[in-house]
Amino acid sequence: MKIAFLGPHASFTQLAAAQLFPDNELLPQASILDCFNAVENGEAVKAVVPLENSIEGTVSMTLDYLYKTPSIKIEAEAVMPIAHHLMIHPENSIENIERIYSHPQALAQSFHFLDTHYKEIPKQDFSSTAAAAKFVSENKDTAIAAVANQFAANLYGLKIINRNIQDFEQNHTRFIIISKQQNMYQNDHLETLGEKSGMLITLPEDHPGGLHQVLSVFAWRKMNLSKIESRTLKTGLGNYFFFINVEGPWKEVLHGNALKELESIHANVDFLGNYKEFLLES
Ligand SMILES: O=C(O)C(=O)C[C@]1(C(=O)O)C=C[C@@H](O)C=C1
């Protein structure tokens, strides 16, 4: 079975995918969109993509493609500790760094460190932390640095000049397994943190109390919401869809009266799956 992931090798997403699928072929992709496309067109059966970080919040691209690709569902969530390091080519020195590259999430998670110690040095977005590390290793003649993980430093032969530069020591990213089936991924070797359901909800038009009505469907049934995120529909200011997580196994309830109630207030519900959350090692 082929599993797509945001590459190249030694990205955080690969570290997550390797723990979730130790016996499968991992296919590196250049972007989160490519991961969705690989699953959509059958090149890969599943993909692992980042969804949310404890410092920087939601990975909006993942949320957008979940919304845009209704055939794609969620099979599991996995939380992994994230440590960022600043690294350079071993033939370069720290004094002459002219630019720092990384994934925008990694730059944002290390913003205060970089702003305090490397304020004047331009930062530039890259498709992933590992892609930035690879680029630094291939360009020893330019004085550049990357924010990436220990595995990237080892794989691409880079020297770490600052360790653990994330702005909060406790830094975790939540990844999801996506696929076109609606399976519940199981793994007895990983610690399970809980079970939840995910859905995307859109309201027909902005009206007073619309979101309140949706939330009350869950509140009256004492269903605990563990996440609610609004994201622009891109059709105009004020138009949103909502990504909602409800704790526990509750699919039966949703397909019963709760779903009818949501329909009666003209809410559109795209059920993403009933899945478990696992804990990964860094
Ligand atoms: O750039 C990487 O290495 C990734 O796997 C992406 C990503 C993300 O998008 O959140 C994954 C984990 C970290 O939060 C930083 C970057």
Automatic annotation (TrEMBL):
Q: Pfam families under this entry? A: PDT
Q: Which UniProt keywords apply?
A: Amino-acid biosynthesis, Aromatic amino acid biosynthesis, Lyase, Phenylalanine biosynthesis
Name the pathway it acts in.
Amino-acid biosynthesis; L-phenylalanine biosynthesis; phenylpyruvate from prephenate: step 1/1; Metabolic intermediate biosynthesis; prephenate biosynthesis; prephenate from chorismate: step 1/1
This protein's source sits in the domain of life called Bacteria
| Annotated catalysed reactions | chorismate = prephenate; prephenate + H(+) = 3-phenylpyruvate + CO2 + H2O
The UniProt record lists the Prephenate dehydratase domain at: 2-180
GO BP annotations, alphabetical order: L-phenylalanine biosynthetic process
Protein name listed in UniProt: Bifunctional chorismate mutase/prephenate dehydratase
**Organism the protein comes from:** Chryseobacterium viscerum
State which gene encodes it.
Answer: pheA
